[in-house]
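Exercise 7 asks you to align residues with tokens for two separate proteins.
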Amino acid sequence: MVEHMVSIEKDGAIVIANRVVIDGHSNVSDKVRVVTHIHSDHTVNLSMSIRNNYKLIGTQITLNWLPILGYPVNSNLLELDYGSRVRIGDLSLELVKSHHIPGTAQVLVECSDGSRILYSSDFKKPGVSTPLVNADVLIVDAVYGRPHYVRDFDNIIETILIDFVKQLLSEGGVHIFGYYGKVNEVMNILREGGIDAPFILPQKIYMMTRKAESFGPKIGDYVLAGTREASEIIRSRWYVYLDHTTRARFGLPNGASSIVLSGWEFEKPIKKLGPRSWHVTFSDHADFNGLAYYVSQVNPRAVYVVKARSNGAEEFASYISEKLGIKRVFVV
């Protein structure tokens, strides 16, 4: 059975055939590591892989964002487009698009006997903007693995966010706080939704945006926070300031509003936190129903649920075993 080629370590590192490791560090024979995207739970021990001269495989955006986030990457990199394949010994490895943050990829490994192993990485909107592929073995992160982790408004949250930002902009500046990558996705959403107010960005997000623009669509009007130009824009009270969620601030001067982005709310899309401060339930992960649908469409013979990056891993494993009829389900 092909699942004997898969092992998962406590920190979430996924090892395939002792040749390649995904989203963690492990001593594999070919010293190859795949980085599915730049979030910290997927770059675990990345500096160790770099020190040991592992070849890093990822999308163009992911590999070019890593040094901006402080990883000392060297020239031992392989930028792989979605749909392109690379040989690693007797394995064929392909990155498949995932709708999460820019550059995120699912990882599809085809073995010499034709069997297929798929790692989901993080995703949302399966079958819509996250492609569904068949595999014999599926490795999945059940971020929202409990049955009550359901957001009935997921399909309309982007429209809700656009309309809410437009409303707040009519009253003053808007500050949006989210994780790296997520704020880059939100910038694209706001521009596509017709919001042309200038964006003000702190240095890391500014650099990430410039790098992303060199590979894809232009964001348009944005300036570096702390500059004279940014100060003048803030005085105009018509701008969107985007920053990391750990720097969320409330009670801002000049009537500016604060929005914190997070998926950990299931009852309502917008929740008031205080004067001119709100939580908007914008998630980059599929909810429980989306996870279950994804697994059903991949139609694997065996499933590994990665405990290190899951919430309710055992509950999700029980559900797909009982409801989807997948008998070989492992929580590791």
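Second protein for Exercise 7:
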Amino acid sequence: MQISQHYLPYPKKTLIVVTNNELAKVLWVHDREIDELLTMEMPKDDGDFKATGTPHSAAPDFDEMKKHKLQELYTKLNKKLIKLLNDDYEEIVLCAPEAKKNELVEGMHPDVMKCTVEIVPKNLASLPLDAIVRILQETRAT
């Protein structure tokens, strides 16, 4: 997809990462060209969360399981970003919901953070590509 002439170009090869509580999309952008590179989803439940049937069985902690699966997603994303940085990408823009921003950033490799030029506290992962571009350009202009 072409970025409109109304918006600023990305002069360096840049990765834009948009995440929410279930998935992460990695976009590549250079100059005025942008496209989706890959989508990573949170690992699925394996269905092994049934109570054992004993009277003293504790209910599974679904919040803890979801947090663990989200951490798995962030770990997988981190590894992929390191590999992509070795493929000549120069900058990274990270987008995550405000509530998950610190969690995402804390687990990132130092090389990933060194190349991160902007952290946008917004949930953009479920939006179409043109809306992501528009919102990111609006945050760049301010």
